[in-house]
Design a protein that fits this description.
Blueprint: E1 4-10, E2 14-23, H1 28-41, E3 45-55, H2 59-73, E4 78-81, H3 85-93, E5 101-102, H4 127-135, H5 155-159
Parallel strand pairs: 2-3, 3-4, 4-5
Antiparallel strand pairs: 1-2
Length: 162
């Protein structure tokens, strides 16, 4: 069950989408549907309030980025408001700072985390951001030929532990 709550609040000149909870790969489809609905409900800007949202990986931010691109192609705006420092760091790490319109600066003076660099050795990286980068890196699929053969445990080896 997804742990993301989404509320649409239409107004005359904009539609506010309030998010709260955890946004990750499991909730990305729900988020995309809600943003599409917000675009249909209103004619003005779409404001996405992420103050109560934790982005567990880049998939929720990717949905916001694609939605922002689609809206701007239609001559409309999507603004992200209420993003805490951790979300801003994740936006910068994902390379989406130039594609998402935030209510304040993305950069708060800290260097950006590089996804290609080893985040555990970065001296100023926040602990939660390090975990987010390490836990949610996309690894390429491996072909069956590249996989190491599985070792089978012999029954004699199991008896030693009883």
């Amino acid at each position: 069950m997804p742990h993301l709550q989404i509320a649409l609040v239409p107004a005359p000149d904009q539609v506010v989408v309030r998010l709260s909870g955890d946004a990750d790969a499991s909730t990305a489809a729900r988020l995309a549907r809600a943003l599409q609905e917000a675009a249909v409900v209103g004619r003005g800007a779409v404001v996405v309030d992420v103050a109560g949202t934790r982005f567990r990986d880049f998939s929720g931010l990717q949905v916001l980025s694609l939605f922002t691109d689609a809206l701007s192609a239609a001559g409309r705006r999507c603004r992200i408001v209420g993003a805490p420092a951790a979300t801003r760091r994740l936006i910068r790490s994902a390379g989406l700072a130039d594609r998402l319109e935030l209510d304040g600066p993305v950069d708060n003076g800290e260097p950006a985390l590089s996804v290609t660099a080893d985040p555990l050795t970065h001296p100023r990286a926040a602990t939660s951001a390090r975990r987010a980068v390490v836990l949610h890196q996309v690894r390429p699929a491996r072909c069956a030929e590249e996989r190491a053969p599985r070792r089978r445990m012999r029954l004699g080896a199991l008896r030693r532990w009883h």
